[in-house]
Amino acid sequence: MSQIVKIEDMNKYFGDLHVLKDINLTVDAGEVVVIIGASGSGKSTLIRCVNGLEEFESGHLEVDGHPLIPKGGNQKSLAEIRKQVGMVFQQFNLFPHLTVKKNIMLAPMKVKDESQVVANGTAERLLQRVGIADQANKYPSHLSGGQQQRVAIARALAMEPRLMLFDEPTSALDPEMIGEVLDVMRELAKEGMTMMVVTHEMGFAREVADRVFYIHEGQIVEEGKPEDVFDNPQNERTQSFLSRVLKH
Amino acid sequence: MEFQFQFDWQAAIDSIPFLLKGVPYTLLISFGGLAIGFVLGIFFGLLSINKHWFLRWPATAYIEIFRGTPILVQVLFIFYGLPDLIGGPIDPLTAGIAAIALNSGAYISEVVRGGVQSIDKGQTEAGLSLGLSRTQTFWSIVWPQAFRRMIPPLGNQAIVSIKDTSLFSVIGVGELVRQGQVYIANTFTAFEVYFVVAILYLMITLTLSLILRLVERRGLTSV
């Protein structure tokens, strides 16, 4: 099985703060990797490094065979990587000046030179898939948070990515809307999409993840199958984190 | 003898045809200058937020110089000073348009900077993560949103610049105030004529305000 993401001995600093410490992590094609950890542990920073939204100071990172090099170097593969990696943000980051459909059509037309007709067809199909075909011509501000996040997922999928990154996709949602977004993600996972997910939804992690990584203060302190990590954590920091988040 | 002032309506009305000849000049200097100022404003406004200091620095210098000196001094410098440098006269209309362009350009640079910086960083990140280049991300995602926010301050600047053209009577451009002065020199009806001049400015600026309000309303509903 081919590796989509390969991270070796990656270190990242924010000024003097050492936010990622010797990260080693791989994601195989079709695999769903969930990263959990407390706020500020570096889990979002980690997945933001994968598509180059954050730079790192040392180590090696490869996405589908394309290398990203440490800060200061010439990122020759960055454009290629970003074409192949979709990202879903906590705050959705939909384009408010474009309709839902135009949000989805923008990148295929600009980046892949798709014709309007083709991009339009793709957008309609994807909106169908995430269950909001009827909202196509509305502006994002007229949609609920859950609907907006589903549009954001469709927008990323329109580029036919090899890998999807989810950065706390449900953290900004009202509780009653979390389910509809997780459903779409679950569906994606089932269809074989390779995914890296940062989330606080432990139920989702347990159910969908192939592997779970627990990050504490910038370090991966525990990794394994969800049943092992959740039911039988080896590291005491994982134990205390899980006992705090699973209590309620 | 008792002093009595009577507003001479006939004098006011009589002055209108002569004053109206100044309106095209006022509009030409204002909007000609603003059009160039807008281009300068986009150019220097975007330079002023560039990450390279050697690009930022000239933009900042331009903005500070033209915001920090009176537009009257600027136009006098262009009209009376620059000919010494270039070895030939500059016609007053050109000098007026240049002064409005350079002056409004400095303020518009700040409007552009503020507008662009007000757009959430997440918008840029979303564009980049979809594979768009920095340039594509800026022009198709950030700029359209920033421009919408820039409309009210741009309208404000247009009104300021229209009024600033009144100062150019000193270099003899036949704009509204200059026309008024010439007319008064013959009729000595200063009160009536300046009253009409003020009304004409107000008609121009109110029309512009109205248009802007309509544009704004249309722009905001789609965001």
From TrEMBL, chain A:
For whether the record's keyword set contains Transmembrane, the answer is no
Its record classes its membrane topology as: Peripheral membrane protein
Which SMART domains does the entry mention?
AAA
Q: Where in the cell is it found?
A: Cell inner membrane
Molecular function, one GO term? ATP binding
Going by the UniProt record, its keywords in alphabetical order are: Amino-acid transport, ATP-binding, Cell inner membrane, Cell membrane, Membrane, Nucleotide-binding, Transport
> Signal peptide location in the record?
none
**SUPFAM superfamilies listed in its UniProt record:** P-loop containing nucleoside triphosphate hydrolases
All copies of the ABC transporter domain together span: 5-242
The primary site where this protein sits is: membrane
Record's PROSITE patterns? ABC_TRANSPORTER_1, ABC_TRANSPORTER_2
Q: Gene3D superfamilies from the xrefs?
A: P-loop containing nucleotide triphosphate hydrolases
The protein's superkingdom reads Bacteria
Family classification: Belongs to the ABC transporter superfamily.
Q: What is this protein called?
A: Arginine ABC transporter ATP-binding protein
Say which species the protein is native to. Marinobacter zhanjiangensis
UniProtKB/TrEMBL annotation, chain B:
Q: How does it sit in the membrane?
A: Multi-pass membrane protein
Stretch forming the signal peptide: none
Cellular location of this protein? Cell inner membrane; Cell membrane
Q: Does the keyword Nucleotide-binding apply?
A: no
Q: Which UniProt keywords apply?
A: Amino-acid transport, Cell membrane, Membrane, Transmembrane, Transmembrane helix, Transport
Q: Which residues cross the membrane?
A: 25-49, 61-82, 193-215
ABC transmembrane type-1 domain mapped to chain residues:
23-212
Q: What does this protein do?
A: Part of the binding-protein-dependent transport system for glutamine; probably responsible for the translocation of the substrate across the membrane.
- Family in the record: Belongs to the binding-protein-dependent transport system permease family. HisMQ subfamily.
Protein name in UniProt: Glutamine ABC transporter permease
Organism annotation: Marinobacter zhanjiangensis
Q: Gene name on record? A: glnP
